[in-house]
TrEMBL record:
It comes from Rhizophora mucronata (Asiatic mangrove). This is Uncharacterized protein.
Length: 18
């Protein structure tokens, strides 16, 4: 599931930005 992996990456980046 590439989409899931990408979603997790985006979520992690968002949390890092906050």
């Amino acid at each position: 599931m590439v989409i899931l992996f990408f979603n997790a990456k985006i979520l992690t980046h968002t949390i890092d930005l906050v």
